[in-house]
Amino acid sequence: MAVKKIAVIGAGVSGLGAIKCCLEEGLEPTCFEKSRDIGGLWRYEETPESGKAGIYKSLTCNTSKEMTAFSDYPIPDDYPNYMHNLKMMEYLRMYARHFGLMKHIKFQTKVLSIKKRPDFSSSGQWDVVVEADEVQKTYIFDGIMVCSGHYTEKYFPLQDFAGITNFQGRYLHSWEYKHPGSFEGKRVVVVGIGNSGADVASEISRVAEQVFLSTRKGAWIWNRVWEHGNPMDATLFTRYNRVVQKLYPDCLINRHIENKLNLRFDHANYGLLPQHRIFGHRTVFSDDLPNRIIIGKVQIKPNVKEFTSTTAIFEDGTEESIDDVIFATGYTLSFPFLNDDSTILDSQLSMFKFVFPPALEKPTLAFIGIIQPFGAIIPTSELQSRWVVRVFAGLKKLPSKKDMMADINRKKQKMTKDSMESIRDKGRVQFIDYMDEIASELGVKPNLLSLFLWDTKLAKEIFWGPCTSYQYRLQGPGKWAGARAAILTQRERILKPLRTRVLKHSQISLSPLLWVKSICVVIFFLVSMLVITHITSN
Ligand SMILES: Cc1cc2nc3c(=O)[nH]c(=O)nc-3n(C[C@H](O)[C@H](O)[C@H](O)COP(=O)(O)OP(=O)(O)OC[C@H]3O[C@@H](n4cnc5c(N)ncnc54)[C@H](O)[C@@H]3O)c2cc1C
Ligand SMILES: *[C@@H]1O[C@H](CO)[C@@H](O)[C@H](O)[C@H]1NC(C)=O
Question: Which sequence ranges form a coiled-coil region, renumbered to this chain (predicted)?
């Protein structure tokens, strides 16, 4: 049988993982990347071309390195836990070099359209039209992996802001924001409190005269530096915590985490308290914001009702004179090369496990990395790719269209129940659950029970430790001989970059007294069950 040719659209983190997975499965990948380099969002550019993800110069990961790494290529032990975008690029270049990915990428080649071939129902093949040097070319492919990212189409609802066209100062989308220099001494409104809004407001407030951060809904603010100075995700995203979360009703878990975040600063006193519970909404990371608020450089404001030529009037009636406005209103998902083909795409929610459009006669089109896990993207999109190439290679079958639709509808219902977000923000999934779900499709989910019997040391780290992606390389297709060692040394890699002045008797441990904690949890659970049964029986 001829080797299957696969088109990969985009050479960001998702595309790089996709190419690697194709090679691993013996498929022949061709990656089309419209810019001249790899990295996608993570490659900082002073003046990005339109349609490329834009980041600010200071952008630093909000996921820690052990949670962010590709599953068979740990990030070097001396790299900081939260990497600056330049460090992330270094890692991606090493990954591309190590697995020989560069020769499969055609740079400065933009995919214009993808269309089913006339014999699609039997061949599953696609016509892919690309453009390079203003010349168009059509290729035939047996499968397509869409890895084009979702932070390129600005969401810029200017019509929602009365009077903005009369405003005489400068206004821009956070996409265009690079560094704070030009805001020195200015009075600035930042509209929207996502990760970008919080970052940009905090950064500008170091040089600006005054920053107003305007938010309709408020937000829960997380910090990267968690208890004992450990990375937040590496501390909280453990299988053990997931089990505990499932044991308790959501409201108790929400309350517990909310109390924790309020311990750092009271969200109500700081004007940030949202209406929504913490897990019903997208997360905002900012280690800086409360520090900027308490010194008065950032003021939290409600929604802007109206702009005049020189001021912003907020919904509480207050008016502030301002020089600049930054709209940190986010992005929308867009796939221009699909030509709005609605048989493929109504919304990301309508895809089987957010990857396969269910209505196609042949499963030869896949979307990688369009969900937003509460957690890192690399491991998620890599696992999706590993699954997809198995399907493309004919080694795995998808369920019937009917079963896929049933699964999709079940998820949709659950999401509308759990989340109060606008449609464009949907597609949030629980990190560990989603990873396990895809891993089960693939047959690479670690079997904890047998591990506890045969390799207790490893099983303990998998259960209590950070749920890193190396665990999906222990067994099944794509098994990696280094996985066990990578898991057992992950805490050393977390500590290594911190130990730049080693103390003689320092005994730092990531999760002190875990066993005491767990016994407390079990006792607490039993007691609360007793209390609940007691109350309900009365
Ligand atoms: C400010 C910000 C901070 C973030 N921080 C984190 C973080 O700390 N950790 C984390 O896990 N995630 C983070 N994310 C999520 C982020 O989306 C992912 O980390 C990751 O960059 C997504 O990679 P991607 O490859 O899917 O998309 P992208 O990085 O956007 O790459 C897509 C690539 O496709 C190319 N392309 C698009 N269309 C075409 C076409 N038609 N033809 C050819 N090429 C095309 C683009 O040029 C680009 O190179 C962050 C996102 C933002 C916006
Ligand atoms: C990190 O920031 C990006 C961009 O705002 C966001 O989409 C992602 O969800 C954040 N990650 C986490 C774990 O919250």
Answer: none
The two structure tokens encoding residue 396: 């795995």
Q: HSE on the CB side for 44, CA within 13 Å?
A: 17
Please, where are the H alpha helices in 358-447?
377-392, 401-418, 431-442
What tens digit of pLDDT does each residue of 151-190 get?
777 888 888 888 999 999 999 999 999 999 999 999 999 9
pTM reported for the whole predicted model? 0.92
Of 145, 429, 472, 96, nearest to 282 by C-alpha is 429
Is ligand 2 within 6 A of the CB of residue 194?
A: yes
pLDDT, position 340: 64
- Full set of structural domains in the chain with CATH: 5-152+332-437 (3.50.50.60), 156-329 (3.50.50.60)
Give pLDDT tens digits for 417-451.
Answer: 655 444 444 556 789 999 999 999 999 999 999 99
- Which residue ranges of the chain lie beneath pLDDT 70? 1, 50-51, 280, 340-349, 416-428, 505-514, 538
Instruction: State if residue 148 touches ligand 1 by the CB under 6 angstroms criterion.
Output: yes
30 touches 51 (CB < 8 A): no
The conformation of residue 78, written as its DSSP 8-state character, comes to T
Which tokens in the block code for residue 492? 């050393």
Max intra-chain CA distance, the chain: 78
Q: Residue of the nearest CA to atom 3 in ligand 2?
A: 195
Three-state SS for 154? strand
Atom from ligand 1 closest to the CA of residue 152: 30
What is the Å distance from ligand 2's center to 72 Cα?
23
Q: Which residues pair with 128 in a beta bridge?
A: 114, 139
DSSP, res 399: P
Residue 279: both structure tokens together? 């897990």
Atom from ligand 2 closest to the CA of residue 222: 14
Q: What is the number of the ligand 2 atom nearest to the C-alpha of 374?
A: 13
Q: What is d(CA 76, CA 496) in angstroms, rounded to the nearest whole number?
A: 10
**Does any ligand 2 atom lie closer than 6 A to the CB of residue 174?**
no
Burial of 394 (0-12, 13-18, 19+ CB in 10 A): exposed
Q: Which of 439, 193, 166 is nearest to 292 (CA)?
A: 193
**Which structure tokens are listed for 36?**
């001249």
Burial code (b: 16+ CB inside 10 Å, e: under 16) for 302-314 equals bebbbbeeebbbb
Ligand 2 atom closest to 282 (CA): 9
Q: Which of 42, 58, 62, 83 gets mutated to test ligand 2 (max ligand atoms within 8 A of its CB)?
A: 62
* Residue 431 near residue 439 (C-beta atoms within 8 A): no
C-alpha 495 – ligand 2 centre gap (Å): 24
| 299 alpha carbon – ligand 1 mean position (Å) | 31
pLDDT of residue 281: 74
| Ligand 2 binding pocket includes 373 (Cβ within 6 Å) | no
